[in-house]
Amino acid sequence: MMDKVRISAMQMAILLYATIMATAVLIAPSVIGKFAKQDMWISPVWGAITGFLTVFIAYRLNKAYPEQTIIQYSEKIVGRIPGKLIGFLFLVYYLHLNAISLREYGEFVKGNFLIETPMVILLGTMAFVCVFAVRGGIEAMARSAQIFVPLVIVLFLFIAIMLIPDLKPKNMLPVMENGPGPSIMGGFISSSWFMQFFLIAFLLPSLGKGEKGLKWGSLSVIAVMVTLAISNLFSLLLLGDITSTFVYPVMSAVRFISIAEFLQHLESIVMAIWVAGTFVKIAVFHYVLVIGTAQWLNLSDYKQLVYPLGFLLVIVAIWSAPNLQKVAHVLATTWPFYDILVHVLIPVLLLFVAMIRKKATKGSN
Amino acid sequence: MKWLTVLGIVVIAILITLYEWPKMTKDQKKEKKAFTVFTIGSVVLAVLLVYFPEMPGPTQLVDSIFKPLGKLLEK
């Protein structure tokens, strides 16, 4: 174990919550709405099932191979070469996913606020801050998340309360018009966020002794589920059927807020939520990528890789997408299958093989 | 103007190296190798992107691999 620093299970849950909620809360209503229509607020509940499943798989693998991440134990489970290949797939996946998140952040800020600023500057500054956090280690990230996340939750609730006078509950009806099908379909799309809970496999080894990883991991899944359900429900009640035509429904919803023509232009609050959340998200993914790479190459330390990989991250962010529409299309069609392969199929396979090797049985007692 | 961007990329890479290189001890040969490979690789990729911005990226690769499955969700 390279990082001697320990974090608490609650800090882990906060990191995970911010990481997954950050991009989901703004984009999910639009993407899920395409499939689930007026049942979109039910979809996160279906999606959460995959969240619990991935947390449980990661937890069991961690029990069988404590103090190790998937990059290390995949080699022990399926042998050196296949293990390295799996590790490589994970690293490429995390680099790519993080680059897309960074790009989403850049597109959002450029599209809504800093229209004239070149994309490279937006991506570069964000990556720079995140890289600083990662270099400070997991504890520094956990503590900064501990400061940001309560603030983000308060702002989120504030916006939700401000929206209440504008809500039209009729938009919700008819509930399950075409049976549970559409909502499950939306749940399938939302599960690609919930599957990111597999990140826990990289954080569990940093937990202190006796910390309740499974319990806090599950609580984090529930928190994300509730947040997503609220943001879906509020977008739906405010915007109705057209929710999915907006790129950022929550953003458009917030523009509606006008209390006595005094409290207006609360978009800046959404911006604050988005920036703080994205900071934690990119830092966590970058941390995972960096420690994963160091473990994959059997390096003694990970810190010297933080900057070069941060540089690479910005470049891949520019490379990965010609524009946001293209990314949104890929995220809604082919990307969920990539997620399932990396976050569910491979871990399940590893756990299965590990169980056959009768190592996981020790952990179950 | 493109050479200016390339210059900027190289300057960033040099700054990163100047900052990190002295922090590695003599016996960290592997670490130095990894650092060099990633930094040079990033610079090469960045310069390629400056001259060929339309180069197909990783997202297109994922898209084409999972296309048959993605059709299920196409609308």
TrEMBL record, chain A:
This protein's UniProt keywords: Germination, Membrane, Transmembrane, Transmembrane helix, Transport
Tree of life domain: Bacteria
Location(s) in or outside the cell: Membrane
Pfam families in the cross-refs: Spore_permease
UniProt cross-references to InterPro entries, sorted A to Z: Spore_GerAB
Membrane topology: Multi-pass membrane protein
Keyword Transmembrane: yes
Protein family according to the UniProt entry: Belongs to the amino acid-polyamine-organocation (APC) superfamily. Spore germination protein (SGP) (TC 2.A.3.9) family.
Name of the molecule in the record: Endospore germination permease
Natural source organism: Lentibacillus halophilus
UniProtKB/TrEMBL annotation, chain B:
Regions crossing the membrane: 6-22, 34-52
Classification lineage: Bacteria, Bacillati, Bacillota, Bacilli, Bacillales
Origin superkingdom: Bacteria
Protein name: Preprotein translocase subunit SecE
Keyword annotations: Membrane, Transmembrane, Transmembrane helix
Organism: Lentibacillus halophilus
